[in-house]
Design a protein that fits this description.
The chain has eleven helices and 20 strands. Strand 1 and strand 2 form a beta hairpin. The protein starts with 10 loop residues before the first helix and ends in a 44-residue tail after the last helix. The N terminus and C terminus are likely disordered.
Length: 527
């Protein structure tokens, strides 16, 4: 069955966006900090006919593949100059074998495969569901190096996520399960790797990608742009943008390179908005420490997006959203901070399983709300948390508690990005701060992003670290907040009550604007 992507923020962000109009050396990177644990009993070995594999993620059981750990991707793309035609591509994967591999499964669909080599030798390949199953000339064994090269196409047509077709080109939105619609790989956040992108496009177009630019080489009427990441990255965070874009450069705290990519005609009007970025980074650093990646910036694409997305080092927004920030900074700037916060929470520290998503979105929502409270609307944080508390039981009934989202009972499409993983999870962090006090909470936040930088971590890791920092066992306290069917009493607020149950099967709407309305202040429900 075709897996669909949901690359969008919660409803309040989606409607907000829709409603208001250091150079790296060329030497190979060091091995990435990467963990791709196979599910119990999975070694990568596959007998019988080719079939899909997975690492057993409870929410996306067929994502990821056992038996190998990816260290790096080198992805070459050739853009033909129109976004309704496939790109020609070559993806080279450098990995380490971790289990016996008579066959190698890669996540890949929506493209045509020309040929595959394994360690320089031709290999047979076949499709099985949304997997590309490769049969090398001999069985591979743990500890062996692995280099897979796939010549293929990457097709931007159709629905399901991956490529976004903009008015002037393309950009990516791969979250949660659509990177394998763009390139073959191990499409699960548990297996992070470093990336190199080599993108050839007509000379009148600008190409940007994650990381820092290594080179730009013109040959006739076409230019090849090369970018490389300095830190490992999950596949869902990959970004390549091709279009008639202006690149606005600046410097952030500690000399951090800033580059913002906007439609050429927005060069002047966007400057006032993107110039806020350095101050936003400095604000985040007050709470969680130094920015963890090699660069940062905003990517504004010429498309009517109804979401924002934290692709690594380059958060993507629709063109109209920057206008919203310029016109309504009090009401919209927090969304910029939300995506910035993800560079720590979700990008540098990546969830081990998709059920750990609350660690990404809860933290990003928390810092969005805290920023709005401090900079624009004092008191809005508590108001927003109280409103979330009133709705939390309905959110839990609709889709499960923050750390245990449920798949639809009828086997229908999974909607992972529910209100409970945004305001409902920020509410968990607010409860924790109430329980252990603000000083220990800030120590925990700094320790979390320091200890797990460039790696993956899960809910159990967060609970253990919280207990360590607080000096007492918080497992029971956090278990009820993270896994309980009902929202526990809020420490320090005995008068907070849950709202009466909503209509069975329907979650209460998150605080946010009605479609077509002017965006409300953060935390104020729309009537």
């Amino acid at each position: 069955m075709l897996r669909s992507v949901h690359p969008r923020r919660p409803l309040r962000h989606a409607l907000l966006a829709a409603a208001v109009l250091a150079t790296l050396a060329a030497a190979p990177a060091a091995p990435a900090v990467s963990t791709a644990p196979a599910a119990p009993g999975r070694t990568g070995a596959q007998d019988g006919p080719p079939r899909p594999a997975g690492i057993g993620d409870p929410l996306f059981p067929h994502l990821g593949n056992p038996g190998y750990d990816v260290l790096g991707y080198d992805i070459a793309l050739a853009y033909p100059g129109r976004n309704d035609a496939p790109l020609t591509a070559r993806t080279e994967i450098t990995a380490r074998v971790t289990g016996r591999l008579p066959r190698i499964n890669l996540d890949f669909t929506h493209g045509t495969v020309r040929d595959v080599t394994v360690n320089g030798r031709p290999a047979a390949h076949a499709r099985a569901g949304e997997d590309l199953v490769v049969t090398p000339g001999r069985t591979l064994h743990p500890g062996e190096p692995l280099r897979i090269a796939v010549r293929h196409t990457s097709d931007p047509r159709g629905n399901g996520g991956g490529w976004i077709r903009t008015k002037d080109g393309l950009a990516m939105a791969n979250q949660a399960d659509a990177a394998h619609r763009v390139f073959p790989g191990n499409d699960h956040p548990a297996d992070k790797a470093r990336f190199t992108f080599r993108v050839t496009a007509p000379q009148d177009l600008t190409v940007v990608a994650n990381g820092l630019r290594l080179s730009r080489e013109r040959a006739g009427a076409r230019t090849t742009w090369t970018y490389r990441t300095a830190h490992p990255m999950a596949t869902e965070l990959a970004q390549v943008s091709i279009g008639r874009s202006a690149v606005l450069r600046g410097t952030g705290p500690h000399g951090l390179p800033l580059r913002h990519v906007v439609p050429e005609r927005d060069r002047r009007t966007a400057r006032a908005v993107v110039d806020r970025t350095s101050a936003q980074i400095a604000w985040m650093e007050r709470y969680v420490g130094r920015y963890p990646l090699e660069s940062y910036g905003v990517l504004s694409v010429d498309a009517p997006l109804n979401f924002a997305l934290e692709t690594q080092t380059l958060s993507v927004f629709g063109r109209d959203f920057l206008r919203a920030v310029a016109q309504h900074p009090k009401r919209a700037e927090g969304v910029l901070v939300h995506e910035l916060a993800h560079q720590w929470f979700g990008n540098s520290v990546t969830p081990r399983r998709w059920s750990d998503l609350w660690l990404n979105e809860g933290h990003a929502t928390w810092y969005e709300a805290l920023f709005t409270d401090e900079r624009h609307d004092r008191g809005s944080l508590v108001r927003r948390m109280r409103a979330a508390y009133g709705q939390s039981d309905d959110w839990r009934r609709a889709g499960g508690p923050p750390a245990a989202p449920r798949r639809p009972a009828d086997g229908g499409q999974l909607e992972l990005f529910r209100p409970v993983v945004y305001d409902g999870s920020a509410l968990v962090l607010y409860a924790l701060r109430q329980e252990i006090g603000a000083p220990d909470f800030e120590k925990l936040e700094r320790a979390w992003v320091t200890r797990h930088r460039d790696g993956t971590a899960g809910t159990a890791d967060f609970v253990a670290l919280a207990s360590e920092v607080a000096g007492r066992d918080l497992e029971d306290f956090l278990h009820s907040w993270l896994y309980g069917e009902r929202t526990p009493p809020m420490p320090g607020h005995p008068g907070w009550k849950a709202a009466k149950p909503a209509t069975p099967g329907k979650a209460a709407a998150p605080a946010g604007p009605a479609k077509g309305a002017e965006p409300p202040e953060a935390g104020k429900p729309v009537r």
